[in-house]
Amino acid sequence: MSAPPARPLLRLSPGRDRRARAGHPWVFSNEIVMNAAAKALPPGSVVRIEAEDGARLGAFHFNPHSLIAARRLSRDPDAAIDAGFWRARIAECLALRERLRDGPYYRLAHAEADGLPGLVLDRYGDVVALQANTAGMEAATPDILAALLGLMPLRAVLARNDAGVRGLEGLAQEVKLLHGEDARATIEEGGVAFAVDPLGGQKTGWFYDQRDNRARVAALSRGRTVLDAFCHTGGFGLQAAAAGAGRVTLLDRSEHALATAAETAARNGLGERVESLRGEAMEVLERLGGEGRRFGVVVSDPPAFAKSRKDHDSALRAYAKLARLSAALVEPGGILFIASCSHHVGTGEFADAVIDGLFRARREARILGIHGAGPDHPVHPMLPESAYLKGVLLALG
């Protein structure tokens, strides 16, 4: 048997190796000697990268057309990146999640932090949603699918490949079944059984990142009225109802999301204590404030206000406005939880924007906690910006 062809070798430009040597999982295109051979490599190729002095930096997925040109797979430049590699790496993710969570409902793989750069896997019992956001992970999808099916008894696996970042890798957007015939599923969280539609819902079907925060809010909601703004399918509000909230109002602009939430409420025996409001959340919050409505607990968990760096300043103003409008609806002694999933907005500046909104609402507050995503969304030590989710929990006077 002939030896496999040598893995392509790329070198870093003089003086551009500091970050890679320190263990950063990305190498940018302006750090690599982009000669004709490098530019000719197919997107998604596995390459070796060395510093100018020959220091071996590992095996990487490479895309010559992307700003983030290389993403590290292994510190061993000669590691076999084959079916066995993907199975072993996903098995590690599975073992950790089974220690972190009760029941098969979690983010199974969280990209770079799990040594799977550009890959997100969400598990809904016997269904897994896969999101391959890089050319390398797109090429590896058949092996990843085989690993998933070999490690878990899965009824369906789907590709939820409709994230905008795929365009930066030259990839088309698509949503399709990879295995099975029906990807609809049910998850259990906070005493509520939620229907999940990974093919038709938002993102990969469910926002696991807020799981621990939903539990925190639910624990503070017994006997209180609750407003869940930007509710999607009611994750915060319905768990608050299950925990004993007296009345829950769900607010979202999506008719489909509210209908799904209503079905979940009815199926879990919560329908009599849950009402829905449809509309643009910021407008409805302002109207409710003008009407003098007050709630014991208010949750405001909007989509990202800063989808790119250019949106940073306007996003901070929007978060301050959201905090002002939300705080005005909290009764004295009540609770406010407000969140941001904009990774272009840092935790400190988000908290400052919230505080500014509280000042404008003339509300006294105590910060009970500043929280991120749950432990099934780990953060790579060299990528602090990947800690995208932040939520401020407050008691208002």
Q: H/E series, N to C? A: EHEHEEEHEEEHEEEEHEHEHEHEHEHEE
Query: Major sheet: order of its strands?
Result: 15-14-13-16-17-19-18
| Outline type | globular
Helical fraction equals 25-40%
* Percent strand: 25-35%
* Largest sheet, strands/sense/barrel: 7 strands, mixed
User: Which segments are poorly predicted (pLDDT under 50) over 5 or more consecutive residues?
Assistant: none
Structural class: alpha/beta
Write the layout of secondary structure elements.
Elements: E1 9-11, H1 18-21, E2 26-28, H2 36-39, E3 45-50, E4 56-62, E5 68-74, H3 83-100, E6 105-110, E7 119-124, E8 127-132, H4 135-151, E9 156-161, E10 174-179, E11 185-189, E12 192-196, H5 211-219, E13 225-229, H6 235-242, E14 247-252, H7 255-267, E15 274-278, H8 281-290, E16 295-300, H9 312-327, E17 330-340, H10 347-360, E18 365-371, E19 390-396
Parallel strand pairs: 1-3, 8-9, 13-14, 13-16, 14-15, 16-17
Antiparallel strand pairs: 2-5, 3-4, 4-5, 6-7, 7-8, 9-10, 11-12, 17-19, 18-19
Helix pairs in contact: 3-4, 5-6, 9-10
Describe this structure in words.
The chain is α/β, with parallel strands linked by helices. The chain is built from 10 helices and 19 strands. Helix content is 28%, strand content 28%. A 7-stranded mixed beta sheet has the order 15-14-13-16-17-19-18, sandwiched between helices. Strands 1-3-4-5-2 form a 5-stranded mixed beta sheet. Strands 6-7-8-9-10 form a 5-stranded mixed beta sheet. α4 (135-151) links the parallel β8 and β9. The chain is globular. The model has no long low-confidence stretch (mean pLDDT 94).
